[in-house]
Write a structure and sequence with these properties.
Blueprint: H1 5-26, H2 33-39, H3 47-50, H4 54-78, H5 84-92, H6 95-99, H7 106-116, H8 119-137, H9 147-166, H10 170-187
């Protein structure tokens, strides 16, 4: 007896959600299809019922992982209507975001893979960069809302989290997050 279309769609969505989480946690190179399908409660052989190739899965999971963070950034910016940029900075440069990459922003974990990836991967990454720039640009730092300020802010956010996750010294990790947060807030008059 075959699966209904609804069951097939749910299975596919489950595989994508798990893959999106795992590539944020481990990167794209570490994701094994057999382990992924097992975690999703499916057989390895069923993979090709849902995806044409590993690259197809990776591209779709990366796009999902990248899009997941957008809603979180919007909520963070709305946390304090008087200081929306501060809310976004504080949420992004938090210990929680650093310590939970599986639910964090995929711009941090997928930058290198997107840089080496094909057009579809680059386009998904670019879409989120543009979306985040637009969001940040729409939150005036000093009343100007300049694109350059948004680019510096986004680059500092992503870079600080990447480095804070990569260093072994917990004090340096905290210092990176705190210092960049303070400088972004000071530089934009939101501290």
């Amino acid at each position: 007896m075959g699966h209904s279309q609804a069951e097939k769609a749910e299975s596919r969505a489950r595989v994508l959600r798990i893959a999106a989480r795992r590539i944020r946690e481990q990167g794209m190179e570490q994701l094994g299809i057999a382990e992924l399908m097992k975690e999703a409660g499916l057989t390895h052989g069923g993979f090709y019922k849902h995806f044409s190739s590993r690259e197809d899965l990776m591209n779709q999971a990366a796009a999902l992982a990248l899009a997941d963070g957008e809603e979180k950034m919007e909520r963070a910016a709305q946390a304090d209507p008087d200081l929306p940029r501060t809310g976004l900075i504080d949420a992004y440069l938090s210990a929680h975001h650093r310590d939970t990459p599986g639910t964090g922003c995929a711009l941090v974990t997928l930058g290198e893979a997107a840089g080496r990836g094909g057009t579809e991967m680059k386009e998904a990454y670019e879409k989120q960069v543009r979306s985040y720039l637009s969001l940040i640009e729409g939150i005036p730092a000093d009343g100007s809302g300049e694109r350059a300020d948004a680019m510096v802010t986004l680059s500092a956010l992503v870079g600080a989290v990447l480095m804070a996750r990569a260093v072994a010294d917990p004090e340096l990790s905290d210092e990176l997050l705190g210092t960049v947060a303070a400088r972004l807030k000071d530089g934009f008059g939101t501290a």
